[in-house]
């Protein structure tokens, strides 16, 4: 066996076969990642010495695949060299090429000395230098994160850990000094508190009090230098005011920076005396201003001490829905950006705008034969996508704000199209009645997201030679903008000439093309699209392998593009009433088909996948049943016995996919063709010899006609669509609800609820049906949390629909007033919210002449002001009825809160995130009946809501999945290595920050913890928390989970006060996101209660544990093992308080549950009974002592009683149990049995028997799952 050491842990490859099994069906025919490949990507690193002017030489660890440029980046980040930007690196006097890989440089080896040599400036270099200095000065300033620019985002973890995670050597206080720990949480965090403050969401970070180094740094009004000064080497002039109030004018010249003699009104470019010529601005300022020197040093020290994950840019912008009032300071770079470089010129590409289409397509064409090539390719694709998404977002905002000239300026604003920075923008309105048949503007609004889903699907199949457009959909200020990359040459020709495949008029005229059919044929299997014929205007049959609207255009670059992929997936018949078509009874029972806003409602890809898998199991069962009957027939002929074969027998005998292979072999061996034929017919397969289900996306498209000879086929396809629609209603919705009952799905807010729906292929338009289903479920009480989140999602989505059209009529100057008025009508208890028309600030002298440049779609500009709360809620109720077919019973916000148990703060969070509103962080009084909650000063910003494709790191993901599989089979070490490897590959593709890396780190931390490496667990989990805050948001449900895991590892490391702070933070966030009544809150409160028990805060501990007990009883049912455990935890605290009667009462409850659920003989029942005996003895002893005291007064001889403070080890053991981490010392024989048992269960699982999922995360019920996390002694 070869062992390969890679950075971050070895990876063992046992054999080719094994990795095949782990990886599952590898996409795009990738050969196995064999050993040679892996060696290629990770050569061993080496150390070089670096000598910069004015500093001691230092060592730097580098790797051979790094570029020279990456060393530049490191130097620009290091504390002692960060002020240099314009330099070259030289080895033995030779300048190194920036873009060369280190391994290609002759003579560069272990111990080489690289010299940093200052180079002369150019205008570009001088600008870069000033920009870099500005970034260093602002490096601790959070305003970029609040404003949502440059991929900055917030993180608050360091506020709660005081930076003492993991540096146990330097830690300020040791965990054992319990006296120092202040355990009392703020009042609003305690169980039962009704107050939900907003301000603690963003605690003040003491690092952010900016150290002022300079008062002003800006471009001088004397720019650009006149000709005669240019010839003296002047590049540009800067103007500064130091902290000491000294006004100075500085020349940037080719040799560096120096003071000149200009003032605000007189130009004198001669050097001042002394001129302090310095190559770096920092050196110059340090000589002039003592305050700058002192503060800049402190600032850089603090900057370097922050965790890198707090400052690395995220791949996509994350916006914060709350922000404090930030002072607006003078900032030359931001000012310059706003007017120059950002309008289409990207700073780092010399002299031109980026050709986005060329970049997006070229990266797709990169080689992908082996692992290093694939990594390079995926990294390039990901980078270009995230750059494109950022540029498209900026462009869309510029378009809506009216800062981009239309390419058809003569037309009405709704019909205008724009080009900016080589991106094409169109608005989501139905121009030229294109969508008239399909639902007008509603269809035009839905089409871009459908198209984006199509682009995502084709991108994931990744067929060589087939190209899609870069597509980003942006919702901003009530408008939907689609941003697309531009096909070369398309603007010069008419659309009719360019489309050589598909239809431009929804199927009236249709053309096809051999090359397109060949390319699309390769996508038809993975996307389940059936090749089919349609009739064109001449009644000729034309063959297609996609929907008719999908157009094929060959660009001037010779590439085959497909666009308009809005019908990649088949239509959803539940929302598409068709004359004379009858849906299946399951759908009809639920009141389908229903009229939708538009006719573009289609099924999700996840649903298609689930449906086909369901049909496959059915197919196998049918075939097996027939085979058994055949066999039985043969045997019965021999023995003249007749037996009745019931289908149930077949169901039991086929444990699903595991046996499918054997079955397939036996079908081939015997004469099974007839069997297969019958099974194929039964499940609607398009082939008669094998299982193959595909959909025809053109069925029921208005205007599409099919040839006579395909009538039967079309009939089959229609039936298949009806079955799929019925499958959604009769299987997927109940399975979602069942998953919530089993706590396999735990949505906490709107986003996680939507995700849970989507994973099961349920569109959000079914939300009303899902809620009705929950309402009729017998176990409705155990789904209260789910129902409440669903109602809140439904209401905020309806409000968002209304808000969208409301905003379109508002002109820019009235925006904050309009948004605050809307929020008042939506949430405030103040009955007659009156809008303040912003006429007060500026009154125009002349009556406004009719303006030409109206906002797109802008109607009457003051109509918004007449909205009243009762009217808004009427609209919300009718929107809920018409869109979701759900009846809300409420006339205002207070009734909603009352009837459905919602929180206003949660509704505010949901609507702000959905509509992109940013509000001032302060305490809002929603319930005052005398004044509205919001004023226009409270609305700080409106952000775009952006949808884009997320390119995947496929190899990394395979490693990650096989790692998870290994862990679930109990091979922890192998699992850990695979996941470490996945982490390396993820970093390789995504850079340092990404949602998937976050999941990887969380699992790694958990494995480290189980394998006993608490320190490593802490460090990985800290990264996971920081990353989750930065990439998902500071109060995203995943972030809350990460905080809980981190608290556990802190406790295990003896950092008790930090663990408590983290748990309190998690509880605050959870209260805000979903309120107290949620099953996850029980887990959180058990954690808090246990930690408090450990630090001997018994009364406080009881408040949390009793709350956990109540929630567990409600959501898991009073007989659940979780509840028994809760009783036991409460009993232990009472024991510590010496209140034995209460302790006994709780332990008895627990004992009864164990006895009934798992029987007398089970170890849990025995443990409980032992503990009961012990408590009884203690109670008796206490009673004796008390009696003794009563009898003999103070001179009684008292037996010393054992009052036990719990040991940390016992608290940790309980913490592990409730968090689903169980250590079992196992013998070798036990291990064998365990593995056999796991395999047996996995087969059971595959057969579709309802086994609890064997997931590593997620609290494990003690008895009904094998502990998956196993520690081998």
How does this structure look, described?
A hairpin with a 2-residue loop joins strand 13 and strand 14. The strands form 7 sheets. A 5-stranded mixed beta sheet has the order 4-3-7-5-6, with helices on one face. The N terminus and C terminus are likely disordered. The protein has 42 helices and 25 strands. It is 47% helix and 9% strand. The chain is of the alpha+beta class and 1273 residues long. The chain is globular.
Quick structural summary:
By secondary structure, the protein is of the alpha+beta class. It has 42 helices and 25 strands. It has a 5-stranded mixed β-sheet with strand order 4-3-7-5-6, with helices on one face. It has a 5-stranded antiparallel β-sheet with strand order 13-14-17-16-25, sandwiched between helices.
Characteristics:
disordered C terminus, disordered N terminus, CLU_N, alpha+beta, 1273 residues, cytoplasm, 47% helix, 5-stranded antiparallel sheet, 42 helices, 9% strand
């Amino acid at each position: 066996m070869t062992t390969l050491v890679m950075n971050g842990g070895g990876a063992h490859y046992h054999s080719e076969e094994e990795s095949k099994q782990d990886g599952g069906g590898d996409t795009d025919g990738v050969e196995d990642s064999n050993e040679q490949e892996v060696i290629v990507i990770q050569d061993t690193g080496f150390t070089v010495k670096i000598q910069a002017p004015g500093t001691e030489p230092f060592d730097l660890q580098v790797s051979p695949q790094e570029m020279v440029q990456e060393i530049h980046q490191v130097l620009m980040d290091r504390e002692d060299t960060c002020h240099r930007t314009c330099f070259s690196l030289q080895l033995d006097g030779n300048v190194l090429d920036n873009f060369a890989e280190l391994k290609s440089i002759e003579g560069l080896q272990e111990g080489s000395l690289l010299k940093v040599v200052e180079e002369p400036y150019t205008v570009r270099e001088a600008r870069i230098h000033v920009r870099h200095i500005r970034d260093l000065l602002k490096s601790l300033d959070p305003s970029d994160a609040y404003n949502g620019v440059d991929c900055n985002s917030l993180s608050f973890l360091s506020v709660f850990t005081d930076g003492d995670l993991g540096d146990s050597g330097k830690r300020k206080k040791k965990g054992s000094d319990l006296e120092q720990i202040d355990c009392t949480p703020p009042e609003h965090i305690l169980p039962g508190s009704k107050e939900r403050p907003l301000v603690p969401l963003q605690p003040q970070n003491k690092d952010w009090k900016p150290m002022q180094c300079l008062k002003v740094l800006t471009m001088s009004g004397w720019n650009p230098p006149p000709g005669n000064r240019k010839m003296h080497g002047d590049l540009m002039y800067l103007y500064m005011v130091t902290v000491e109030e000294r006004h100075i004018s500085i020349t940037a010249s080719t040799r560096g920076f120096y003071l000149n003699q200009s003032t605000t009104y007189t130009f004198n470019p001669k050097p001042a005396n002394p001129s302090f010529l310095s190559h770096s601005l920092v050196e110059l300022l340090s000589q002039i201003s003592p305050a700058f020197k002192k503060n800049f040093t402190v600032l850089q020290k603090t900057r370097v001490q922050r965790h890198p994950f707090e400052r690395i840019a995220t791949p996509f912008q994350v916006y914060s829905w709350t922000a404090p009032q930030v002072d607006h300071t003078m900032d030359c770079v931001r000012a310059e950006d706003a007017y120059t470089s950002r309008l289409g010129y990207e700073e780092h590409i010399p002299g031109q705008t980026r050709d986005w289409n060329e970049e997006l397509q070229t990266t797709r064409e990169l080689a992908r034969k082996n692992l290093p090539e694939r990594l390079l390719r995926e990294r390039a694709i990901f980078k270009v996508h995230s750059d494109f998404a950022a540029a498209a977002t900026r462009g869309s905002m510029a378009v809506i704000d009216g800062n981009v000239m239309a390419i058809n300026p003569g037309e009405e604003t709704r019909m205008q199209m724009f080009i900016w920075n080589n991106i094409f923008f169109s608005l989501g309105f139905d121009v030229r009645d294109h969508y008239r048949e399909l639902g007008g503007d509603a269809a035009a609004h839905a089409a871009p997201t459908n198209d984006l889903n199509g682009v995502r699907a084709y991108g994931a199949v990744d067929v060589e030679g087939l190209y899609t457009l870069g597509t980003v959909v942006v919702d901003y200020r009530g408008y939907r903008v689609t941003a697309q990359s531009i096909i070369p040459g398309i603007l010069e020709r008419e659309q009719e000439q360019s489309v050589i495949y598909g239809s431009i008029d929804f199927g009236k005229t249709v053309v096809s093309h051999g090359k397109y059919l060949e390319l699309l044929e390769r996508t038809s299997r993975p996307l389940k699209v059936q090749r089919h014929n349609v009739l064109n205007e001449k009644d000729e049959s034309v063959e297609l392998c996609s929907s008719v609207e999908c157009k094929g255009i060959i660009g001037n670059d010779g590439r085959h593009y497909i666009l308009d992929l809005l019908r990649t997936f088949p239509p959803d018949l539940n929302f598409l009433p068709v004359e004379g078509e009858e849906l299946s009874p399951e759908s009809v029972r639920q009141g389908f088909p229903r009229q939708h806003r538009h006719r573009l409602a289609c099924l999700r890809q996840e649903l298609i996948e689930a449906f086909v898998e369901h049909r496959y199991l059915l197919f196998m069962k049918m075939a097996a049943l027939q085979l058994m009957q055949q066999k039985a027939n043969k045997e019965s002929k021999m023995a003249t016995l007749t037996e009745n074969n019931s289908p149930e027998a077949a169901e039991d005998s086929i444990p699903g996919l595991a046996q499918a292979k054997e079955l397939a072999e036996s079908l081939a061996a015997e004469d099974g063709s007839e069997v297969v034929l019958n099974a194929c017919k039964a499940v609607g397969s398009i082939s008669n010899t094998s299982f193959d289900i595909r959909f025809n996306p053109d069925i029921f498209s208005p205007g599409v006609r099919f040839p006579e000879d395909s009538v039967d086929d079309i009939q089959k396809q229609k039936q298949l669509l009806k079955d799929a629609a019925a499958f959604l209603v009769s299987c997927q919705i109940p399975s979602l609800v069942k998953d919530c009952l089993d706590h396999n799905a735990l949505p906490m807010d709107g986003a996680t609820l939507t995700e849970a729906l989507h994973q099961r292929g349920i569109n959000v338009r079914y939300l009303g049906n899902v809620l009705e289903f929950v309402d009729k479920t017998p176990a409705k009480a155990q789904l209260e949390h789910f129902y409440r989140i669903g109602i809140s999602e439904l209401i905020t989505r309806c409000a968002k629909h209304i808000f969208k059209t409301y905003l379109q009529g508002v002109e820019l100057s009235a925006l904050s007033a309009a948004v605050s008025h809307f929020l008042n009508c939506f949430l405030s208890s103040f009955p007659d919210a009156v809008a303040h028309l912003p006429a007060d600030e500026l009154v125009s002298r002349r009556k406004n002449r009719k303006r030409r440049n109206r906002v797109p779609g802008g109607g009457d500009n003051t109509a918004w002001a007449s909205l009243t709360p009762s009217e808004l809620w009427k609209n919300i109720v009718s929107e809920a009825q018409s869109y979701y077919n759900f009846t809300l019973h409420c006339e205002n916000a207070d009734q909603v809160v009352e009837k459905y148990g919602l929180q206003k703060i949660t509704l505010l969070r949901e609507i702000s995130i959905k509509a992109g509103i940013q509000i001032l962080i302060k305490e809002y009084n929603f319930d005052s009946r005398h004044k509205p909650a919001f004023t226009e000063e409270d609305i700080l910003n409106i952000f775009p809501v952006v949808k884009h494709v997320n390119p995947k790191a496929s190899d990394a993901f395979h490693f990650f999945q096989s790692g998870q599989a290994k862990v679930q089979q109990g091979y922890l070490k192998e699992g850990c290595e695979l996941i470490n490897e996945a982490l390396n590959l993820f970093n390789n593709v995504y850079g340092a920050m990404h949602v998937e890396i976050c999941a990887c780190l969380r699992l790694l931390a958990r494995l480290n913890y189980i394998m006993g490496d608490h320190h490593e667990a802490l460090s990985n989990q800290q990264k996971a928390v920081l990353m989750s805050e930065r990439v998902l948001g500071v109060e995203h449900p995943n972030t809350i989970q990460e905080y809980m895991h981190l608290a556990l590892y802190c406790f295990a490391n003896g950092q008790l006060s930090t663990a408590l702070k983290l748990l309190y933070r998690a509880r605050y966030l959870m209260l805000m996101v979903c309120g107290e009544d949620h099953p996850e809150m029980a887990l959180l409160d058990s954690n808090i209660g246990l930690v408090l028990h450990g630090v001997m805060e018994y009364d406080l501990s009881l408040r949390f544990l009793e709350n956990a007990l109540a929630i567990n009883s409600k959501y898991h049912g009073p007989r659940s093992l979780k509840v028994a455990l809760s009783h036991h935890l409460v009993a232990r605290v009472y024991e510590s308080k010496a209140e034995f009667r209460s302790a006994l009462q709780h332990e008895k409850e627990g004992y009864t549950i164990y006895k009934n659920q798992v029987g007398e003989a089970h170890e849990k029942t025995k443990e409980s009974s032992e503990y009961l005996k012990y408590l009884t003895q203690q109670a008796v002893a206490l009673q004796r002592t008390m009696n003794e005291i009563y009898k003999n007064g103070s001179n009684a001889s008292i037996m010393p009683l054992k009052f036990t403070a719990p040991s940390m080890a016992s608290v940790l053991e309980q913490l592990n149990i409730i968090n689903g981490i169980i250590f079992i010392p196992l013998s070798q024989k036990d291990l064998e049995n365990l593995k056999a048992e796991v395999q047996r269960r996995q087969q059971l699982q595959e057969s579709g028997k309802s086994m609890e999922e064997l997931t590593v995360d997620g609290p494990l019920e003690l008895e009904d799952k094998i502990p998956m996390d196993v520690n081998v002694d």
